[in-house]
Write a structure and sequence with these properties.
Blueprint (H helix, E strand, L loop, with lengths): L9 E4 L2 E9 L6 E6 L2 E5 L8 H13 L7 E5 L5 E7 L3 H7 L2 H11 L1
Parallel strand pairs: 2-4
Antiparallel strand pairs: 1-2, 2-6, 3-4, 5-6
Length: 112
Amino acid sequence: MSNPGNHGFLRVQPDGVLLSVKVQPRASANEICEPMGNELRVKVTAPPVDSAANDALIRLIAEHFDCPRNRVELLRGQTSRHKVLKLHGMTLETVLARLPLLCSLCLLLLDL
């Protein structure tokens, strides 16, 4: 059984949840995809220029998890496709409930 505070791309902290993502800029649509290893794949239409992809990522995550943008912080990976975001004030249960169905199924299988 896995650690309840660690689901590969999710890590629980006392004041929120860390989310490891791999961003694909210049995609045809903004979307949250299935996990790939220890990262959640996220596609954004913005190019990786002048923080446009980072801004698009934060906007997409905030909209998807129904939280203000100032509660989503980019901790690592400002110039990389591999990023770590912090979702301030969110619980693991809230994050899991809002993940795409495929992600939720993968996480359930990890707990078996």
